[in-house]
Amino acid sequence: MDERIAHALENDLVIDITTTGRKRDWYANMLANPHITFHLKESVQATIPARVEPIIEPETKRPIVTQIAEAWNNTDRIEEWLVSGPLVRVHLEIDLATITNSNS
């Protein structure tokens, strides 16, 4: 597994997957059915089942959105993103130790 991805997953960090300028069907789909599947197809090949949980409470959402905005050097849009940006927490339903790098 890519070391950066493994580090993020092991340390419960934010992994940002965004859609800019397009309709957000993915969010409506996740609300309707919170069970998703990640298909890893590069150096790591795996199918990872997961469940998503919408984050809608401002006190929970603010620190995450702030962290993303600071990383993007775009803190002037935090309030806008808090109101309009969907955010979900992903709960992986697999033991990450079972995933190996296909280049190993």
Strand content: 15-25%
Read across the widest sheet, the strand sequence of neighbours is: 1-2-3
Span from first to last CA?
9 Å
User: Largest sheet, if any?
Assistant: 3 strands, antiparallel
Low-confidence stretches: none
Number of strands: 3
Q: Round the Cα radius of gyration to an integer and report it.
A: 15 Å
Order of helices and strands: HHEEHHE
Task: Name the overall outline.
Answer: globular
| DSSP helical segment count | 4
Fraction of helical residues:
25-40%
Structural class by sheet pairing and helices: alpha+beta
Describe it for me?
- With 104 residues, the protein is of the alpha+beta class.
- The chain has a domain at 3-56 and 87-98.
- The chain is built from four helices and three strands.
- It has helices at residues 3-10, 25-32, 58-71, 78-84; strands at residues 35-41, 45-54, 88-92.
- Strands 1-2-3 form a three-stranded antiparallel β-sheet, with no helix packed on it.
- A hairpin with a 3-residue loop joins strand 1 and strand 2.
- The relative contact order is 0.21.
Keywords:
104 residues; 4 helices; 3-stranded antiparallel beta sheet; 36% helix; 3 strands; alpha+beta
Give the arrangement of secondary structure elements:
Layout: H1 3-10, H2 25-32, E1 35-41, E2 45-54, H3 58-71, H4 78-84, E3 88-92
